[in-house]
Write a structure and sequence with these properties.
The protein is of the alpha/beta class and 134 residues long. 45% of the residues lie in helices and 16% in strands.
Length: 134
Protein backbone atom coordinates (compact mmCIF):
# COMPACT_ATOMS: atom_id res chain seq x y z
CA UNK A 1 0.00 0.00 0.00
CA UNK A 2 2.89 2.34 0.65
CA UNK A 3 4.08 1.90 -2.94
CA UNK A 4 0.54 2.51 -4.28
CA UNK A 5 0.33 5.65 -2.16
CA UNK A 6 3.74 6.84 -3.33
CA UNK A 7 2.76 6.38 -6.96
CA UNK A 8 -0.56 8.17 -6.52
CA UNK A 9 1.36 11.08 -5.04
CA UNK A 10 4.12 11.07 -7.70
CA UNK A 11 1.51 11.00 -10.46
CA UNK A 12 -0.62 13.72 -8.87
CA UNK A 13 -3.52 11.30 -8.99
CA UNK A 14 -6.38 12.39 -6.75
CA UNK A 15 -9.18 10.59 -8.64
CA UNK A 16 -8.82 6.82 -8.74
CA UNK A 17 -10.79 3.69 -9.49
CA UNK A 18 -10.71 0.67 -7.18
CA UNK A 19 -11.08 -3.00 -8.10
CA UNK A 20 -10.95 -5.69 -5.41
CA UNK A 21 -12.30 -9.12 -4.57
CA UNK A 22 -13.28 -7.88 -1.08
CA UNK A 23 -16.61 -7.64 0.72
CA UNK A 24 -18.53 -4.38 0.48
CA UNK A 25 -17.75 -3.30 4.05
CA UNK A 26 -14.01 -3.74 3.47
CA UNK A 27 -14.25 -1.90 0.15
CA UNK A 28 -16.09 0.99 1.79
CA UNK A 29 -13.46 1.31 4.51
CA UNK A 30 -10.68 1.48 1.88
CA UNK A 31 -12.59 4.24 0.07
CA UNK A 32 -13.14 6.14 3.34
CA UNK A 33 -9.45 5.90 4.28
CA UNK A 34 -8.43 7.34 0.93
CA UNK A 35 -11.08 10.07 1.16
CA UNK A 36 -9.66 11.11 4.54
CA UNK A 37 -6.25 11.44 2.83
CA UNK A 38 -7.68 13.64 0.07
CA UNK A 39 -8.30 11.06 -2.65
CA UNK A 40 -11.59 10.49 -4.44
CA UNK A 41 -12.68 7.04 -5.57
CA UNK A 42 -14.68 7.84 -8.70
CA UNK A 43 -15.70 4.24 -9.41
CA UNK A 44 -15.31 0.87 -7.75
CA UNK A 45 -16.10 -2.77 -8.26
CA UNK A 46 -15.77 -5.56 -5.75
CA UNK A 47 -16.73 -9.23 -5.66
CA UNK A 48 -17.89 -9.73 -2.04
CA UNK A 49 -15.49 -12.62 -1.55
CA UNK A 50 -14.34 -13.30 2.00
CA UNK A 51 -12.23 -16.46 1.61
CA UNK A 52 -8.57 -15.60 0.99
CA UNK A 53 -7.84 -18.55 -1.33
CA UNK A 54 -10.85 -17.67 -3.46
CA UNK A 55 -9.26 -14.32 -4.33
CA UNK A 56 -6.71 -16.20 -6.45
CA UNK A 57 -9.45 -18.11 -8.27
CA UNK A 58 -10.98 -15.00 -9.82
CA UNK A 59 -10.68 -15.39 -13.58
CA UNK A 60 -8.63 -12.77 -15.46
CA UNK A 61 -11.63 -12.08 -17.70
CA UNK A 62 -13.66 -11.04 -14.65
CA UNK A 63 -10.89 -8.72 -13.45
CA UNK A 64 -10.63 -7.18 -16.93
CA UNK A 65 -14.38 -6.60 -17.06
CA UNK A 66 -14.34 -4.91 -13.66
CA UNK A 67 -11.44 -2.67 -14.70
CA UNK A 68 -13.22 -1.70 -17.93
CA UNK A 69 -16.34 -0.76 -15.97
CA UNK A 70 -14.30 1.38 -13.58
CA UNK A 71 -12.33 2.95 -16.46
CA UNK A 72 -15.57 4.29 -17.93
CA UNK A 73 -15.65 6.82 -15.04
CA UNK A 74 -12.31 8.21 -16.32
CA UNK A 75 -10.21 7.93 -13.17
CA UNK A 76 -6.59 9.07 -13.32
CA UNK A 77 -5.55 5.55 -12.32
CA UNK A 78 -7.14 2.25 -11.39
CA UNK A 79 -5.74 0.28 -8.52
CA UNK A 80 -6.32 -3.42 -8.11
CA UNK A 81 -6.00 -4.26 -4.41
CA UNK A 82 -5.15 -7.73 -3.14
CA UNK A 83 -1.95 -9.66 -3.58
CA UNK A 84 -3.91 -12.83 -4.34
CA UNK A 85 -5.84 -11.19 -7.20
CA UNK A 86 -4.13 -12.14 -10.47
CA UNK A 87 -4.22 -8.67 -12.04
CA UNK A 88 -0.59 -7.61 -12.55
CA UNK A 89 -0.20 -9.31 -15.93
CA UNK A 90 -3.33 -7.56 -17.24
CA UNK A 91 -2.03 -4.02 -16.78
CA UNK A 92 -0.39 -3.44 -20.16
CA UNK A 93 -3.34 -4.54 -22.28
CA UNK A 94 -5.86 -2.73 -20.05
CA UNK A 95 -3.81 0.46 -20.17
CA UNK A 96 -3.64 0.32 -23.96
CA UNK A 97 -7.36 -0.38 -24.21
CA UNK A 98 -8.64 2.15 -21.66
CA UNK A 99 -5.89 4.77 -21.55
CA UNK A 100 -5.95 4.58 -17.74
CA UNK A 101 -2.83 3.70 -15.74
CA UNK A 102 -3.12 0.47 -13.74
CA UNK A 103 -1.59 0.25 -10.27
CA UNK A 104 -1.71 -3.33 -9.06
CA UNK A 105 -0.61 -3.92 -5.47
CA UNK A 106 1.87 -6.64 -6.51
CA UNK A 107 3.35 -4.58 -9.35
CA UNK A 108 3.70 -1.50 -7.19
CA UNK A 109 5.75 -3.43 -4.63
CA UNK A 110 8.04 -4.72 -7.39
CA UNK A 111 8.37 -1.14 -8.72
CA UNK A 112 9.33 0.15 -5.27
CA UNK A 113 11.83 -2.62 -4.55
CA UNK A 114 13.54 -2.04 -7.91
CA UNK A 115 13.79 1.69 -7.13
CA UNK A 116 15.26 0.99 -3.70
CA UNK A 117 17.74 -1.43 -5.29
CA UNK A 118 18.71 1.07 -7.98
CA UNK A 119 17.59 -1.27 -10.77
CA UNK A 120 16.16 0.19 -13.98
CA UNK A 121 12.53 -0.95 -14.17
CA UNK A 122 11.99 0.21 -17.76
CA UNK A 123 12.35 -3.31 -19.24
CA UNK A 124 9.26 -4.30 -17.23
CA UNK A 125 7.02 -1.85 -19.09
CA UNK A 126 5.01 -4.80 -20.42
CA UNK A 127 3.69 -5.06 -16.86
CA UNK A 128 2.37 -1.50 -16.99
CA UNK A 129 3.32 2.13 -17.41
CA UNK A 130 4.14 2.43 -13.72
CA UNK A 131 7.52 0.85 -14.45
CA UNK A 132 8.45 4.00 -16.36
CA UNK A 133 7.76 6.22 -13.33
CA UNK A 134 10.91 7.49 -11.64
Amino acid sequence: MLAVNELLEKLGCRRFGLVTPYRGDVQQRIIENYAEAGYQCVAERHLDISVNFAFAEVEPERIEAMCREVASARPQAITTFCTNLRAAQLADSLERETGVMMLDTVSTVVWKMLRISGVDATPLARWGRLFGVR
